[in-house]
Each structure stands twice: as C-alpha cells, then as structure tokens.
Amino acid sequence: MWLTSSSCVQLLIYFFIQVLALCDHPSILDKSETQGLFSADSIERAFQIIDQIPGRATGAYSHSQGIKGLRDQIAAGIEARDGFPADPNDIFLTDGASPAVHMMMQLLIRSEKDGILCPIPQYPLYSASIALHGGTLVPYYLDEEAGWGLEISDLKNQLETARSKGVCVRALVVINPGNPTGQVLAEDNLKQIVEFCKKEGLVLLADEVYQENIYVPDKQFHSFKKVARSMGYGEKDLSLVSFQSVSKGYYGECGKRGGYMEVTGFSPEVREQIYKMASVNLCSNISGQILASLVMNPPKVGDESYESYSAEKDAILSSLAKRAQKLEEALNSLEGVTCNRAEGAMYLFPRIRLPKKAIEAAEAVKTSADTFYARRLLNATGVVVVPGSGFGQVPGTWHFRCTILPQEDRIPAIVSRLTEFHQEFMDEFRD
Amino acid sequence: MWLTSSSCVQLLIYFFIQVLALCDHPSILDKSETQGLFSADSIERAFQIIDQIPGRATGAYSHSQGIKGLRDQIAAGIEARDGFPADPNDIFLTDGASPAVHMMMQLLIRSEKDGILCPIPQYPLYSASIALHGGTLVPYYLDEEAGWGLEISDLKNQLETARSKGVCVRALVVINPGNPTGQVLAEDNLKQIVEFCKKEGLVLLADEVYQENIYVPDKQFHSFKKVARSMGYGEKDLSLVSFQSVSKGYYGECGKRGGYMEVTGFSPEVREQIYKMASVNLCSNISGQILASLVMNPPKVGDESYESYSAEKDAILSSLAKRAQKLEEALNSLEGVTCNRAEGAMYLFPRIRLPKKAIEAAEAVKTSADTFYARRLLNATGVVVVPGSGFGQVPGTWHFRCTILPQEDRIPAIVSRLTEFHQEFMDEFRD
To answer: Residue A2 pLDDT > 70, yes or no?
Structure first.
C-alpha cells in the first residue's frame, strides 16, 4: 500500500482519453463506428487538433516549442485563468515539468558559484537538478508554524548569507501549492515574493503544477504571472518561468509526460538560448502536447462532454479533499504528531516528535530517525511514506510525506494500521 | 520543399497506430464497434500490453527504466535480431534517442578534461551534448574515399594526440548506419572497432537508430552487441550502449518520442548511477514505450495484420531505396559534385568542389562557402539542404546533407530545380 506518489492512482477524464486515442489514429475520425465509441465533441476536438498539425498526423517532429495551434490554446487557457494576456510564443511544451526544470537549471547554472534559492522542505527534483548541473542550492525554510508560509525576511537573510560567501544567486524556486508541504500561498505572500525577486534581480521559477489541486474554500490559486501583472509589473520588471504538468490536477496523466513552461521577462538573446536548448532534443512528445492543450482548454458549458467531464472532475477533486481531511485528522490524533492542513497539492507532511530512544535506535543502525520510523512502518503495515530527510527539514525535526492518493474506501484501513503501528512504536521507544 | 529532416515525411504502419490508440483508451477494447475499426491482432496486442501495466491504464508513471513487460518484448526482439541473449534489465526506455545520449554524456563527462571520440562528419546532437556537459570532443575523420569508412589508425592517432594533451578519453561514438553520411559499416570494420574499444578501455556509444534503413543488397546491419558477442566478448570485456529510436526505420514516428538504450558491460555501481539519472525524470512517455516494444516485436507471419504490415514496410523501404538512388545519381551528375552511395540511414552527403570565386563571395559576406551555396539554393528553388559545416568536414572540403525523404513523385521536380540552380551557380562563379 503506497502513500508515496501518484504512481498508485488513476484519475481519469474520458474526454481527454478519447481525444488522445483519436489523434493517434485520425483515419478513424470519419468512420461511422467511431460515433458509437466516441463523443461528438471529442471527435470534433480531434479534428481541430489534427488540422493544426502539419501533415495532419501526430507522427512527425513538431516545432521545438510545440505545435503552434496547441500553444495558442494553452495561451488562451492562461488568459482565461489569469485575466491577463498570454503569448503562445512564450510557451515551451515539454515532456512533463521535470525536463523543463532541468532546462532552466542548465541555463542558469554556470558553476558552483551560481546559487538557486530553494524551499526546505522541497520536492527533490530541485536539489537533484542543481547538483547535476553543478550549482549551489541556497536553502530557505518554510515556516511550519505559519502553515508552511514563506517568510520574506528569512529569504533575504539566506540571500545575503549566500552572497557574502561569493555565491551569485540567480533564481528563486517557489512551489505553490507546495510539495511536500501541501500549503497554498496567500496572495499577499505572492506579492511579497514578486517584489523581492524584482528588487533582487532574481529569476522566479514558479512550480505551479498543482494549480488545480486546492481543497479548502478559503484558499485559491493565483499564478505568479497574474499577481505580477496585477501589481503593474510587465515583461521588463520580472523574469518569470511558470511550470505546468499534465501529471497532477484532477487529470493525473503522469505516464503521458506532458507539460509546458511559460517564459516571460527575458531578453531576446536569452530567449534564443532557451529555444536552442529546447531544440537539442527536437520536440516533446505530441500526445503529451495535445493533453497539455486539453488540460488548459477543457470542455465548455454546452459541449456534449461537459456534464460528464464536470462530474468526473468534481468527483476526483472532492474525493481528494475528503481523503486529505481524513488523513490529516488521523495524523493529528497520533501521539506526538502535528500536521498542517493539506490546502492543496497531493500531500501531507506531518511533523513527528520521536522519542530519544527511537532516535538512538536509528543512530545505532546508521540511519536517520525518520527513515527508521518509515522503514518500521513499511515492514509492519505495508504502508509506504517518504522520510522528511528526502525533502529537507529544520535540523532536529522529523517529518514524513504521505500522499492523499489512496482510494477513499481504503483510507479507514490505512488509518487503522497506521494508528496501531504508531501506538506500538511509541510504546516501544517512549522515553 | 525540405531536404533536411524527417519532419517532412509520414511513414505509417497502421498496426502500430491502432495499438497505440487502443492503449490510450482501453475501455473501448471490448466494445463491438471496436472490431469494425481495428484489426483483431491490434486489439489482442493492446490487451496484452494493458495487462502488463499496473492498473491496466497508460496514465500512471512507470518504472523509471520503462514498463517491465515492454522491456521483455524489446529484449526478445534484440535476441531475435542478434542471436544472442538480451536482458530486459539492460533496457532503459527513453523519450527518443536524444535524451539517452544526453544521459550517457552527463554520466561520462566530469570536466573539460574528459573527451569523447566522435566521427566527423557527425550528427550535431553529439557535439551539442558534449558542449552542454562541458566535455571535449575528440574528432576522428570518416574516410570519404573509402565510402565514409572508419579507419582504425586515424582513430588511434586521434586518441593518442588527445591523451598527450592530458585529455582523458572515455568513450567512442559510432553512428551506424551513418548520419549524415549514409554508409553502412562492414562487419570487419565493426570488429576492429570493438577490439579497439576493448583494448583502449573506451565505452562504445553505438548510435544504431537507422538499423532498419539499409538500401543496398551487399550490406546488412550488424549490431555492435552481436559483433562483440560473436567475437566471444561478454559483459566483462566491453562497456557498450546501443541507442535505438522509433523516429527512424520504416516507422518514422518522430513525434511519439520513443526509444531505448541497451546498456551492457558496466559494473553494478555504474549501473546504479545510470538508473539514478533515469529516475530523475521519473519515466519516459508510455505511448513511446509501447511503440518501442512494437517496433522490436512487429506482427509475425500468421497474424491478421502481417500481410498489410509487411506490405507497408516493404513499400516504405523500397521507396526510400529508390529515392536514395535517384538523388545519388542526380547529385553525381552535377559539375564538381561527387556523392557516395546512400547505403543506409536517410541521407546523402555529397562533396561539392566550389569554385574559388564562390568561396571568396562567401568570405565577403562572412559565411562559409557551403552555407553560401545552401542559402543560394534555398532562395532560388525553395529546396533546403544543410551545409556540411553543421556536421564537420575535412577543412577545405565542402559538403551538404540532403535527406532521401521527399515523396517519390516529387523527386524529378527537385532534381530538375537543383540541377538548373547548380548549373547557374557554377556559371556565375566558375574560375
């Protein structure tokens, strides 16, 4: 039983799946049997997409930024989301968000003297990518007491400390909604971050892949681009890269490897280098490109699939919200465990106060206390969580990440196994 | 009119397309209408594939090396091709061959002191990747007089020269069949290369993406693995990486971004690092993975689709052979142009002896003579070729690369435009 990643979950939006299948095999589009198998609007959408592809087939390389017609749809989706213009020429379609992050890191990092400000805890893609490209990770701590908020004064301290050591800090990574921490940053906090990046001349790398995953009524997603534009900041004021993926949201199509980055506020010379980097691998996969366009331009009111699409989407999101709440409550009821709300994303990141004896037992087998706990949990129950050490945490504190992705009907069993294990673990090691 | 890349061509194998569409939308597999739209064996194959995927859907991340059941099929395909065992655990499925090449370069190159032996002319993915990862390209020249063969004595000279400059040469890249040069290396030549790599302790990076593209009866493809095993060399004798792609061959599904590398002869410690690199991007796209398995395990005699599949494949390959021959003849009939046979791959790389006046005219506009010629050709005729400078060539010689991919019925028009342009160009600049 896995509480680690979205590999265990199948979120399914049939409209998306239908369009993808039709685009793979467009010669069935006008067959009569197709109408019995596919919705009218999925057939229509597939026709529209195929018409936008030179050669009317998905088998050829595309433009290295992605098929222009699909980028048009994505830009329109961003405009509809933000209320500010988006330019299809700013969109780079990618095989998921990870290669996009690597691409930006490769462009930003020249040597170990170049630093990237990263949240701690962070999704380890960032530490891995910075290490791979030979740069320096400059950590800033998210404030657990403040619901994993981002404290600008800490950011500033870390920046100055790094600079005093001769590190040229080039960019700030913000993951919103947070991974592994599940928080949704407040609009005021986003404004402070924009202001900070502008003032300090930092590229803002905005990991916004969980933008559809919000589970609490008092929070909503605001893109950094929207916030910056609403503050009156344009192209010349802020270099901003927003990452989006088809692997998250209510669609969860991880295996399709689709995503994009929207790149704004760079000089033409830098843009040319980004394009050159994108072209080294020719193009991202076309199915992933199509799916990214569907995610940003789903069925609308009046379309044949709209009702089923909405029902699927609502069912998935409300189920995820229920799972988040049930797991959060269960975790908070455990001895020595506190857990912030899962406001968004797909994770909970509870803090666990481990007894001294448990920490010593971990040290005796040369492992960290949270890994010791997680291994014990796995062996005793089959439930997998990821130790906080994998994401970074304030030294001396211990956490683990668990996803909210197990099927709803399996959560009671997971909770009861976890609770029983935790009780026994504490009984064994309690000081 | 493009003679540059496979972006212009649509090679289409319907069996592959059908299986991909069905795997995208497996819930139609058992609908009655599906039998009217899809062949029985494509439905059966899709069932088999879906059964091998945890969760029976293509929406989840896979194992970072790719879905095990698909790797089994690929390994079986390699065994059938080579007559020697292949291990599914040696297969890493990737988003096309390019990311696989980058991954190996990233692992091999620690600093500019690390060198990679690369053919000149070469497909510029290699020079780009070596530059990106901060290494040193150690060139060796293919021998145009010997049909772009690979001269071991030159290889040895280049290796020794590089070593004398303090470069640690770690690997040798061989592209067979050749890009941009179109040669198919003879088996004896492959044996010499294997022997050389073994003796010198070099990793052999074998770009074998054109393994299905052979157009002359006196040549055939031999994989380096088969050659090494037939020489009695096993895991411990040679570190070998073979790259394969779904973008070439008779299938040409460039937009699907599928491919794999077969990695043999590395220690468990190195293997672990390769796996770690692969896992940073989670997994390659599942459609590309499926297609790679289909390419290595196409319909067999007796399958419903076998005849149509064979007919499609033969038609594509024999048409490519005819196009290659027609273009080669046309090029060889031009004043000052000589062109080796296109034995394989998708390219011709004619040498063009440009008049002194043309070289001076190019210098006057600060460009290379081959680029000057290619630009003139483009402006006069709309035909695009790539100047040899993009691939590297013996200094003082000039070439261009043209693909053999234009539709067969368009080739006479292309030839006549090219011939007319060339005549006029030579008339304008003849010494």
So the answer is: no
- Altogether, the residues listed in chain B come to a count of 431
Give the start-to-end residue ranges of the domains of chain B: 56-296, 308-429
CATH 3.40.640.10 holds for B56-296: yes
CA nearest A290: which of A89, A9, A18? A18
Query: Nearest CB to A37: which of B34, B57, B99?
Result: B34
Residue B234 at interface with chain A, using a CB cutoff of 8 Å? no
Residue of B nearest to A133 (CA): B133
Residue window 259-288, chain B: list those with CB within 8 Å of chain A: 280-288
The model's pLDDT over B301-320, given as tens digits with 9 standing for 90+, comes to: 999 999 999 999 999 999 99
DSSP label of B384? B
Tell whether A60 lies on the interface with B, counting CB pairs under 8 A: yes
Q: Where are the alpha helices (DSSP H) in A165-301?
A: 187-200, 224-230, 268-280, 286-295
Size of interface A-B (CB pairs under 8 A): 164
pLDDT tens digit sequence for A411-426 = 999 999 999 999 999 9
CATH number of the A49-295 domain: 3.40.640.10
* Interchain CB distance below 8 Å, A33 and B28: no
In angstroms, the CA B325 to CA B318 distance is 11
CA of B388, closest CA in chain A: separation in Å? 18
Task: Test B6 with A286 for CB contact under 8 angstroms.
Answer: no
Complex prediction ipTM:
0.91
DSSP string, B76-127: HHHHHHHSS---GGGEEEESSHHHHHHHHHHHH-SSTTEEEEEEES--THHH
Rounded to a whole number, what is the distance in Å from the CA of A62 to chain B's nearest CA?
7
Write down the CATH superfamily of domain A319-429. Aspartate Aminotransferase, domain 1 (3.90.1150.10)
What pLDDT score does B280 carry? 85
Looking at the predicted structure, is the pLDDT value of residue B9 above 60? no
Considering the domain B308-429 in this protein, what is its CATH number? 3.90.1150.10
Taking an 8 Å cut-off on Cβ atoms, the answer to whether B257 and A283 are in contact is: yes
